[in-house]
Amino acid sequence: MDWKRAFMVTGAIGAPFIALLAFGMTRDPRQIPSPLPGKAAPTWTHEVFAPGADPAQQRTVGDTVRLADLKGKVVVVNFWASWCLACRDEHADLSEAAQQLASRGVKVFGMLYNDQPANGVRWIADMGGQSYPSLTDPGARTAIDYGLYGVPETFVIDQTGKVAHKFIGPVTATALIAKVDSVLKAGGAGGADSAAKTAVPAKGAP
User: Fold this and answer.
1) What is the rounded CA–CA span in Å between residue 131 and residue 111?
2) Structural Rg of the chain based on CA atoms
3) Contact 152/169 with Cβ under 8 angstroms?
4) Do residues 195 and 163 touch, judged by C-beta distance below 8 A?
């Protein structure tokens, strides 16, 4: 009968989807593996659009920052956007961490994702300032190179230029400083651990 055939066809098509859905229900959406930790950080060259307030982190607006020039230092790169609500949650912690880490020679940069610098400048002012500089990422090319899932995401790059750790979602000052200290202690010989899984970041743009 036609209805039997239709039922069988529907079942054949729907079964894989149902199986995939059932598998997905067993997974924690906050657990997002990343292949980047342990590998060379994709290089980038970007312009400063927000200078940062901490004298040791500060860069002049319009300056060009090259990751290659920072080899030998631990570098923290935080991808963010003015439309990202979760970025508000971590902003004060990131500013605090950047100030504390400056004395250890660590460089912290914000990287604007899928947003306009003017929006970023207004957002920083609304948030009461920022201790570290922020950079443009035209076309989100660096975000793509880093396999960004969304914002906020924060990468810790060791002294050899490898990604030592990736934080997904809002990061706390305590967690970031502890991770950077472990990377500093390892001196670039500590390898990498798996990506931190703290929260699913916001996707795309408004």
Assistant:
1) 14
2) 20
3) yes
4) no
